[in-house]
Amino acid sequence: MRSRTLVILALVFAVAVVIAWGALRIARTAAVSTASETPTTRVKRGPVAITVAARGSLQGGNAEVLTAPAVAQDTLNVTFLRQPGDLVEAGDVVAEFDTTQQEYNLREAESDLAEADQNLAQTEADNGANDEENSYAVEAATTQVRLAEQEIRRNAVSAALVARQNEISLEAAQNHLKQTQEDQVNQKTSTAASLAIQKAAQSKARMMADMARKNIENMTLKAKTSGYVSLQQNTFNTFILTTGMTLPPIQIGDTIRPGMGIAQIPDMNSWEVSAQISELDRGHLVVGQAVTVAVVALAGKSFTGRVKSLGDTSGQAWDRKFDCRMTLDQASPELRPGMSSNLVITAETLDNVLWVPSQALFERDGRSFVYLKTANGFTPRDVTLIKRSESQAVLTGVNEGEAVALSNPSEQKKPGSQQQSATKAIQK
């Protein structure tokens, strides 16, 4: 019995040793597998060009803006409109508006003008007749005065009574002459006033007619330069846009306000590229930096340019972008508006610096660190970030040639966490 018991104990011990050895082997295999599954890269030293890549679209520069005419009405209706991208020459019609109201105003003004012309002619005729009548009355009164003066000359040989009558007649004739002269002056003043009123009415009617004709002419928008048509957004209806919504472009039949922008005619000899660039790259860019533009539709061709302007940031909090416009150094007849372009902006060049791919740098709680590969696995190592682009991170705190993880090693260990717990329990 004793020998059998010893044999059983020996067998149990042997089984326990085999199990422990197997568990330890599995744990080591899992650790090696985890380490081998985590992609790594080496810390490199050398020159680093901080570049910003983006995608944009071609647009003509130095755009001519066409606006709805400022006419005396609240709204305008679009009756004709060029399509986006249409090529136009100087003098070509781009847009037209409904002229019904202005044509009505023109007819009213022309009617008022005709009436004013008739009133003016009538007033001038009446004034002429009144002037003739007043002149005749003055001449008649003057004649009466002269006759009375002749009678006065006889007073020396006439009786006193007759002489007195002659004096009274002369005085009456003189008073009548004075009155007719005053009436003539007053009539001329009144005539001049009435004539001025009629001329003012005529000028007003003519001005209203000319304004209506000018408004009708202005309600046809023509291109002043050659280029292509770029339609503006219709901002007539003021409302709060929900997230992600944009205003539609102006179309035939739309109602707009006088003074609103209708279209732009960009210059085909001056090209620009408009792009939306990530907010993370905003600090790398300044006006004047060199840009390489590769037009997707023109394989193998690229164009040089410069950063022209940096706009405001917009978008969701997790995907903020800002507007950036670049000008091309030279035009090409092959370029067309709306062509997609790949942009590479050279922001800065650093010499003899340590760098790793951007995905090898991790940030958490205000710390910047990498996962440094050691004999015992991956260890977080704090570093100082100098510069960062979409593809490269320039840093200090590591040595050239050291291996760092390109992904979080702890994420690789999650599937084997239960096995590691079992291994630790066996080791205890």
List keywords for this structure.
6-stranded antiparallel barrel; disordered C terminus; 428 residues; alpha+beta; Helix Hairpins; 4-stranded antiparallel sheet
Strand order of the largest sheet: 2-10-13-12-11-14
CATH homologous superfamily of the domain at 100-218, by name? Helix Hairpins
In the CATH hierarchy, what is the architecture of the domain at 100-218 at level 2? Orthogonal Bundle
Uncertain runs:
31-35, 416-428
Class computed from helices, strands and strand pairing: alpha+beta
Portion in strands: 25-35%
Report on the structure:
With 428 residues, this protein is α+β, with helices and mostly antiparallel strands. The protein has a domain at 100-218: Helix Hairpins. 39% of the residues lie in helices and 33% in strands. It is built from five helices and 20 strands. The protein has helices at residues 2-37, 100-153, 160-218, 409-413, 417-427, and strands at residues 40-42, 44-67, 76-81, 87-88, 93-97, 220-222, 227-228, 230-231, 255-256, 261-278, 290-295, 302-314, 321-328, 340-357, 362-364, 367-374, 377-382, 384-388, 392-396, 403-405. The strands form five sheets. The chain has a six-stranded antiparallel β-barrel. The chain has a four-stranded antiparallel β-sheet with strand order 6-5-3-9. β16 (367-374) and β17 form a beta hairpin. The longest helix is centred in the middle third of the chain and has 59 residues, at 160-218.
